[in-house]
């Protein structure tokens, strides 16, 4: 009898054999179970074949490229296995349903990793508790009001003025090296990616906390023979803070991807995990100190309440939440909202500016048209650093350039939605608990919605007489969870576009080099070498 034979051989096996047998049985049961679930899943869709334990983790790599390949190979709806099953949507009409204003609140259920980082159910981005999210959203909306954006133009202009000073200083150092006596006729070859990531760090920091990170100063100091007058200690402090933010962003991926067991018990992963946790503590501590100092300032000098940074607004806003009495925001909530602003607002804006620069240099006709708009609305005779929001709102062609750039190169290439009740999407019925990946780039280049979808053509957002379906433009997401920083980001980008191009000639240092982009959570322009000179 075969079963009797098996029992006999188990009885006579030694401990090691028994251990191997139990181990092999567990593995085979896991694999059997994995593929049983895979082959009996509801609405089976095409997608890369998953492996037990890692799913399609080995295929994932550069997210933007991966989505593009999936869409090309498997179509506008396909599936992917990571820690669980995800449905990838790349067609606007499938996605728009998930952006319905009253539905689909949840982005991603909390994971043990994001809980351990202290992100879950605080602030906005990782907040999946509707009541708590709604409370924060009201403060956030108040802090980012039109009045705030209008006032923020002054500090943004000031940082831009400082940036111009650094360029001029470096350009003149170059000119004197080349023994060029006409100091105003300088040219500078430099990396826009480094400058504008620094610029948006500084802008985000001053608008959110009222303090500088001195990122552009720090970059200037690495390039120049003469150092800036800002004390080294301040520059270093700002640098440490920005590096901690970058490391925190990296840790979000690490903590989402690896299981608690791997992070806590496998030595190599444990030391990395501990280093990320120390970094988290350093960063949270930094934010907490900034918040404490501001509270003291407000108590001791009530006129500080008039400050226009978001931190002060978050502290002093009087928000009534869904019929409840006013509850001021706790320091922890304020900290997580500030963190959201830094993580969501800085790199996305810098990368968009770099992508715009690349497209403008590649399309001189678009650049010409843009310059004639800028020169007609902001005459050359007007000062360099005095643009107002009223000026910026008139720049309709510049706005179309921003839209077209974020259509072709959305800086956040994807978002998620998690369903909490049964629904119908893309012609299939889905049970509650289904996870969708929304592939912005796929939707924004879909031939069903755009004529010549791969061509950079801002006129599609400027002229109304075309067949493009603008509802398929969604780089800021949609529905309840739409990006709350959309207007601020657009204002900063308009200011940069008009100020930089009004005052400088900008061309690519190497015309034949492709755009350098790496995508993990954000599509990051890793380097953009340009040549700039004053525009006469
Ligand atoms: C070009 C610049 C930006 C782009 C392309 C962008 C894009 C996005 C996208 C795609 C989402 C997800 C939306 C969804 O799931 O439907 C998002 C969410 C978010 N963004 Fe932005 N963003 C930008 C700038 C900013 C700025 C300047 C801030 C802050 C001042 C900001 C703060 C946030 C926050 C807090 C969320 C989470 C909202 C929530 O979960 O309710 N973003 N952004």
TrEMBL record:
TM helices/strands, residue ranges: 16-36
Protein name: Sterol 14-demethylase
PANTHER family reported for this sequence: THROMBOXANE-A SYNTHASE
Family: Belongs to the cytochrome P450 family.
GO molecular function annotations of the record: heme binding; iron ion binding; methyltransferase activity; monooxygenase activity; oxidoreductase activity, acting on paired donors, with incorporation or reduction of molecular oxygen
GO BP annotation list: methylation
Assigned keywords, A-Z: Heme, Iron, Membrane, Metal-binding, Methyltransferase, Monooxygenase, Oxidoreductase, Transferase, Transmembrane, Transmembrane helix
């Amino acid at each position: 009898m075969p079963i009797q034979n098996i029992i006999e051989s188990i009885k006579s096996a030694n401990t090691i054999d028994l251990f191997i047998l139990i181990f092999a049985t567990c593995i085979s049961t896991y694999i059997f179970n994995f593929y049983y679930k895979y082959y009996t899943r509801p609405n089976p869709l095409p997608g890369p074949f998953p492996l037990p334990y890692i799913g399609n983790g080995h295929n994932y790599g550069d997210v933007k490229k991966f989505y593009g390949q999936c869409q090309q190979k498997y179509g506008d709806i396909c599936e992917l296995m990571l820690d669980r099953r995800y449905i990838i949507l790349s067609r606007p009409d499938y996605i728009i349903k998930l952006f319905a204003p009253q539905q689909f609140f949840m982005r991603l259920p909390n994971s043990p990793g994001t809980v351990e980082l202290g992100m879950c159910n605080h602030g906005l981005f990782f907040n999946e508790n509707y009541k708590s999210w709604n409370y924060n959203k009201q403060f956030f909306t108040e802090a980012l009001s039109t009045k705030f954006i209008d006032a923020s133009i002054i500090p943004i202009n000031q940082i831009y003025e400082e940036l111009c000073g650094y360029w001029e200083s470096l350009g003149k150092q170059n000119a004197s090296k080349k023994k060029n006596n006409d100091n105003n006729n300088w040219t500078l070859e430099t990396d826009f990616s480094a400058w504008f990531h620094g610029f948006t760090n500084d802008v985000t920091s001053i608008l959110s906390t009222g303090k500088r990170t001195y990122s552009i100063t720090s970059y200037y100091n690495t390039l120049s023979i003469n150092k800036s007058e800002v004390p080294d200690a301040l520059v270093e402090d700002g640098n440490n803070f920005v590096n901690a933010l970058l490391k925190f962003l990296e840790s979000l991926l690490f903590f989402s991807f690896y299981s608690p067991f791997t992070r806590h018990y496998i030595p190599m992963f444990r030391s990395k995990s501990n280093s990320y946790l120390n970094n988290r503590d350093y960063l949270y501590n930094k934010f907490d100190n900034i918040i404490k100092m501001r509270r003291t300032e407000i108590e001791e000098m009530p006129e500080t309440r008039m400050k226009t940074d978001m931190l002060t607004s978050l502290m002093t806003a009087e928000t009534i939440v869904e019929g409840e009495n006013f509850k001021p925001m706790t320091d922890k909530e304020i900290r997580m909202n500030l963190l959201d602003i830094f993580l969501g607002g800085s790199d996305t804006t810098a990368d968009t500016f770099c992508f715009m620069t690349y497209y403008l240099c590649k399309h001189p006709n678009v650049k010409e048209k843009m310059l004639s708009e800028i020169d007609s609305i902001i005459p050359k005779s007007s000062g360099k650093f005095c643009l107002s929001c009223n000026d910026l709102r008139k720049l309709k062609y510049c706005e179309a350039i921003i839209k077209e750039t974020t259509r072709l190169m959305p800086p956040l290439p994807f978002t998620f939605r998690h369903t909490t009740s049964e629904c119908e999407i893309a012609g299939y019925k889905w049970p509650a608990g289904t996870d969708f990946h929304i592939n912005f780039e796929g939707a924004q280049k879909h031939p069903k919605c755009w004529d010549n979808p791969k061509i950079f053509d801002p006129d599609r957002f400027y002229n109304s007489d075309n067949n493009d379906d603008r509802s398929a433009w969604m780089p800021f997401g949609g529905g309840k969870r739409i990006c709350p920083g959309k207007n601020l980001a657009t204002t900063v980008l308009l200011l940069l576009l008009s100020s930089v191009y009004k005052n400088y000639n900008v061309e690519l240092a190497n015309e034949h080099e492709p755009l350098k982009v790496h995508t993990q959570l954000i599509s990051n322009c890793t380097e953009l070498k340009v040549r700039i000179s004053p525009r006469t």
